[in-house]
Amino acid sequence: MGASEESSIILLPDPDGHRQAPPDAPQPWEKTDHAQAAVEGATGPEPPAPPVCSDCGLAGERHVTYYGIHVLLEPGMPVPAHMVPAWHRWYVDSGGTAWNSREDEPSPGAVCRIPHRIACPGLGLEEIGLWRWLDAVRAENARRARRKADGDSDPTALSNAG
Q: pLDDT tens-digit profile of 76-95?
């Protein structure tokens, strides 16, 4: 040991620097982040790939989410938030990070962005997964309209029903 002026203490970058996992090690929340991305539709191409939809070839605006996965938004298309279904309302903060408001009701006058996935011409509604219940309602309404039209042509058709 001796009378050396040099300190034998080695400073670490932060108090827990010796406990940090290597940068390429999987994070414990990684699977949760990917599940959240799938639910919210954050399925944009990751850099360095260009921000182009793999289903239709159109370019979109790619934004990173707070959980580090990218979402492809419809370019230059702000929409009144009350017109967009829950879970498809995306907002972009001043730093360019996108976040999904999930089922939260938008505030009056709010404007949001929509993911390219729900506007993609390369996907059908069954692939997008939107409004399946509404398709069933439309089909039932079509059947009711046909029945009504058929009934209007013969007003006594169901007069003895009951």
A: 889 899 988 888 899 999 99
